Amino acid sequence: MKRIGVLTSGGDSPGMNPAIRAVVRKAIYHNVEVFGVRYGYQGLMDGNIFQMDLGSVGDIIHRGGTMLFSARSEEFKTDEGQEKAIEQMKKHGIDGLIVIGGDGSFRGAQKLTEKGFPCIGVPGTIDNDIAGTDFTIGFDTALNTVIEAIDRVRDTATSHERTYIIETMGRNAGDLALWAGLSGGAESIIIPEKEEPFTDICDRLVRGHQRGKKHSIIVLAEGVGSAFDFGDRITKETGLETRVTVLGYIQRGGSPTAQDRVLASRLGAKAVELLIEGKEGRMVGIQNNHLVDYDINEILSAKHHINLDMYNLSKQLSI
Ligand code: ADP
């Protein structure tokens, strides 16, 4: 492996920059040249490719977003699009590609690998919805953003007797809501993976209210549905006043936390090692603080699971 490419694809996440930095520096450390691709697979097909050196990734370790920009591309999902991308890489003499992104991006990486072009996936998404890794790059930063928001809502909540519902991102995964709910001391955590009878949620709110609780906080994952609809149902059922905060895109931004920077550095470097070893079609991950790698097909057909112990604990702590 003499020359590798790196791109970020799909939804961006805080920590993609330190991951790019690790790929570039680790490759150069091993005397492998690195080419950056702007705008994900779209940029790959368009030939938006440039050589990177040690200085290209200076001063980015603390920045959110991705210096390589990200994009979504329908054209790349076609055989012609993928062949166009491979042609561009051949033109630049690139013989391996590192894709930093979520599961959609990994499908693309798998397609390229099947067409004979070696790719390695690095999980970068705030959703923490990828199998085979305990954490994805960006999750910890987003989690801390959500907690800060919950703490702020809690401050103002003490002045009013209301039920506050905070909607978090996470697509179909409840990790962000679960971790934020537990660390933010929420009364209820509503996630797609675990359905709790609506009457139980209402009973808990009413019980709290009756024993003099001034306010309640519910964290709801977007995968469950609209927090506004949920708030209306609560009011109808209990008579309690509700206020909704949909956190939205602020969860995707911000300077990556130390955890995310370390994770991004380790996973980015590991991806380079795998390419150098001649591996392909694999995703790097972290499990029990050990770096692991799995066949991308295996990852895509497996399911990420929430930590049920944490879910049950949150219930016990919010009786
Ligand atoms: P994420 O990687 O964050 O899950 P997307 O699902 O939007 O984001 O995927 C990012 C890009 O990956 C898509 O715009 C597309 O170009 C590519 N991609 C997604 N699914 C496939 C697929 N089945 N085959 C080839 N490329 C795909």
Automatic annotation (TrEMBL):
Its EC number(s)? 2.7.1.11
Which of this chain's residues are annotated to bind ATP? Answer: 11, 72-73, 102-105
Its annotated pathway reads: Carbohydrate degradation; glycolysis; D-glyceraldehyde 3-phosphate and glycerone phosphate from D-glucose: step 3/4
**Does the keyword field hold NADP?**
no
SUPFAM superfamilies according to UniProt: Phosphofructokinase
Which GO terms of the cellular component aspect does the record hold? 6-phosphofructokinase complex
Catalysed reactions, as listed in the record: beta-D-fructose 6-phosphate + ATP = beta-D-fructose 1,6-bisphosphate + ADP + H(+)
> Mind telling me what this protein is named?
ATP-dependent 6-phosphofructokinase
Q: What is the lineage of its organism?
A: Bacteria, Bacillati, Bacillota, Bacilli, Bacillales
